[in-house]
Amino acid sequence: MEIVHEYTKPRRDFGRQCLFSDRSAELLADVPPDPNLAQQFMPKSSRVQALQCSRDMSEHQVNTERFESESCGINHVEGGWPKDINPQEMEQTIRFRKKVEKDEGYLNSIMHLGGIIGHCVGQNNAVDIYQKYFENEELQDEIQEPPSAKTINVFRDPNQVKRTVSCLSWHPDGGRKLAAAYSCLEFQKASADMSTDAYIWDIENPNKPEMTLKPASPLICLDYNPKDSHTLVGGSYNGQIVFWDTRKGSHPTDVSSLEHSHRDPVYKTIWLQSKTGTEAFSASTDGQVLWWDVRRLSEPTEQLVLDLGREGNLDRALGGISLEFEATMPTKFMVGTEQGIVVSCNRKAKSPAEKIVCTYDGHHGPVYALQRNPFFPKNFLTVGDWRARIWSEDIKESSIMWTRYQMSYLTDACWSPVRPSVFFTVKTDGVLDIWDVLFKQNDPTLSVKVCDEALYSLRVHENGRLVACGSQQGAATILELCAGLSCLQKNEKSLMAEMFEREAKREKILEARQKEMRLKERSRSEQSREDEAGRDAADREETPEQLIAKAEQDFFAMVEAEKKRRKEREEEKQQLSS
Q1: What phi-psi label fits residue 310: left (phi over 0), alpha (psi between -120 and 50 degrees) or beta?
Q2: Residues of the chain with pLDDT > 90: what percent?
Q3: Less CB within 10 Å around the terminal CB: N or C of the chain?
Q4: Alpha-carbon distance 4 to 350, whole Å?
Q5: Where are the domains of the chain?
Q6: What residue spans of 434-491 are helical by DSSP H?
Q7: CATH number of this structure's domain 149-510
């Protein structure tokens, strides 16, 4: 027998019925402006943007069919023992080994193989000993080849609904693994069936991820711990900080509480160089920089509000998009904001107001990438619109070097860890640009069309030879650079130091010249004001009779001048007619 229960609900509980009719417009509410909100308005410095109306050009490429392989394991069972010997019994195996070691055939085989192995070992040692005499010659031959890059592997998002690769991180021990975070940052584009998983890939197996990380909210950033290769920290879309220990499985080991986390998505997390190796800090568009200890993520250990007024007002704080921390300068760090301003901070300042040291303003849009040069930490690279800029800490008014405006938006950039003059940028047209400022500054040394969709993330391996790029459709591509772009050249450090110093001096001279011109203009305007004030005072001191006489004199002088001008014009006409 089927039991049926019917749920009823009165019509009045559904709310007011919608009745549509044609009628004239009427004012239902009038909200007057609030003058207090104008105090929170932050004026943006004006800039000139040049645009060019030209036809978009596209580039196509053809790739060979990819071979799909799968890694599988087998169960190994110990064998090679006689039937009367049980491998589990230690006494029987020891007795059998001693018997075999006394056999003449076994001794002869070992002596014969020992000679062959000794010859091979000696040959390898000889090559290693004399290898140093050919290093310079091989390096010169490799560097003379034209710059090039080739695709090694492509790791695609295994989910049906593709997501953007928002962040990449290389495994610190050898870089045989690559961690990738996936999320959708387009406004209201995330669907309900979109996966939140992040993956750890083996760079030799693009068919299946080695491990799946399962956060509660999509990850925007993910970073390996440089001191412990088994731990990772990530920032999620809901503002939480997530910590993993890969030895304990795919689920997070610890997650920060929502009450003490960021209020907006966490765009960047970086590990700090601490004794315990468990400290990290994060930045978000809610205007906060928070420090964490992954051993206890219940609340942050420290907080900084990016309020340029140094009042700690979160309503006027700048949203953080990128972070920079250099281990050689443990007290300093930099934050790139979505307002196009780079904020330099000092963590060990005495008061919160003194933690914000200075700012660098030079981009039209959010600063998506911010990194110091690994060889010259005083110089750092930023990307925030259609160009990349190189700055010096000593010059706050302007960058010392910059690229020309590109046709596509730049989304990420980083320095080469082995060459001080090389940096990389990715764009929304799917192109990876490799710049060598010692070779040329106006155009990239090498441009590689990685894919047809936009590129949003970039990470270079510590050896400088492998570059990982993440695309909008969830594909992480690994490219291998030629030796000329991944090997340190002769005198490159000294030449780069001279270039940075020369450009910094040039900017200082130009800035001093501009200050001098502004002072002259200011003094000239002040002098003109004083002259006008003096003339007004002199006019006020004259009597009315003197003013009338002066006006008459000026009038008759103008009349005489006009008569003289007309007389000269008539004489010229007579000469022309004659």
Answers
A1: left
A2: 15
A3: N
A4: 72
A5: 90-143, 149-510, 542-578
A6: 483-486
A7: 2.130.10.10
